[in-house]
Amino acid sequence: DLGRNVRFLERGIAAAEVHYIHRALRTIFALRKRLQPGVLSEVVAAYSANTSNHSVAECLRIAAAALGGAPASEAAEARQQAKACEPEACLFFCLLAQLYLLDAKEYERGAELSRALVGVVFSSQRRTVDPIAARVFFYYSRFYEINNALSAIRPALLDALQTATLLNMKESKAMLLTLLLRNYLHYKLYDQAERLAAKTSFPADAPNNVLARYLYYMGRIEAIQLNYSQAQTHLLEATRKAPANAATAGFQQTVHKLFVIVELLMGNIPERSLFRQPMLKKPLQPYLELTHAVRIGDLSQFQAVVSRYQDKFLQDQVLILIQRLRHNVIKAGIRSISVAYSRISLRDICFKLHLDSEEDAEYIVAKAIRDGVIDATIDHEKGFVKSAEIQDVYSTSDPQHAFDKRIAFCLNLYNESVKAMRYPGSSHRKELASADEAIRRERELAQELASEDYDDDD
């Protein structure tokens, strides 16, 4: 398998086509399950002996040492058969070594090897390095994250992002943007993450798995920055870009947890079918109880759910957003009261919403009226709230806004589908030209034969 992948890499380097590089990368996870460090160490040692590039040779040496080395006789035999190691082959072999060290929990050696690999990526400026370099950067960040030292690699990631942008390495740029956003979010540097996203552009043709993670991080940043509509859009796209299978169950659960909170903060109630999906039913149980408390506007039940699952919400990093829901619970309660009662005293509102005083109830109701949550008036002298008559929703502009939102989504989906379509290159035009020329010659020959037959008949 390693020999076949090396041939794919050599063909990709010779033709300067990343298609062959991707074919080699497709077998990475199959090789990971049955990887033998002795065999890989033997191949790495053989290639390192015949390499003149200093950074590549140093990286291969570190990889061979981390894998444990190979017997001298086997290494000498393999060294005679090996060719000079190109940067793409070096990155591919060391990527396998990274996976082995990650599975063996040798994180310090993995971090050392990753630093050497970043040097190889910087020293090579060929477009065929891009697909492998993106995966190298991912595990580079993963090793440092496990070692709880993500801040140490932030300058290196920023330098790599600048280099990838200048060299038009689209996959590496997409991966580095995602890793930097994760780095900033890990240390709760939301302002820096927002500035990074505002000053950079994410590649349109990035792989779906990288795009889904990028959209999730953007959704979290927008939610923290109070831009709930943008956060909802990003999270919804993230759930659609990520494949729905057992391998991505954890990502789907994480995105949907944040999506439920953002929906509640926007004043919407998520559909119950979302909580009934087998993959999401158990992880979203606390969020279902939270949604129920917000829907009925029961402040005491909301506080009980938050206190009961506080550790869970802290682990999911959504507690700061849930604390903002208190006002939404009160607004939902006021909305249900205004629908049920045409006239109600402030004292009864204070009792139903479990508020401290009538003054608090008066202030909250006045704010709800100003925000357009309810259509009512307050009689300050007599201390009651009078609700206006319920008007027909179809006489308002709400249906127009709903249709506009759906049409914009359909147009966006159409534009993305057109961008995702692949068109054949210009090489087929030569074949068509030669085919047209052959057809023209056949027709001329047929005409000549027909004319000769005619002359013979004369």
Describe the structure.
The protein is mostly helical. Helix 5 (54-67) runs parallel beside helix 7 and helix 17 (285-296) packs across helix 21 (325-340). The chain is built from 25 helices and three strands. It is 72% helix and 2% strand. A three-stranded antiparallel sheet has the order 1-3-2.
Quick gist of this model?
This protein is mostly helical and 458 residues long. Helix content is 72%, strand content 2%.
Topology:
Elements (H helix, E strand, L loop, with lengths): L1 H14 L2 H8 L2 H6 L3 H13 L4 H14 L4 H10 L5 H17 L3 H17 L6 H17 L7 H13 L3 H17 L3 H10 L8 H17 L3 H14 L7 H17 L6 H4 L9 H12 L2 H10 L1 H6 L3 H4 L2 H16 L2 E3 H7 L5 H13 L5 E4 L4 E4 L10 H23 L6 H31 L1
Antiparallel strand pairs: 1-3, 2-3
Helix pairs in contact: 1-2, 4-5, 4-6, 4-7, 5-7, 5-8, 7-8, 7-9, 8-9, 9-11, 10-11, 11-12, 11-13, 12-13, 13-14, 14-15, 17-18, 17-21, 22-23
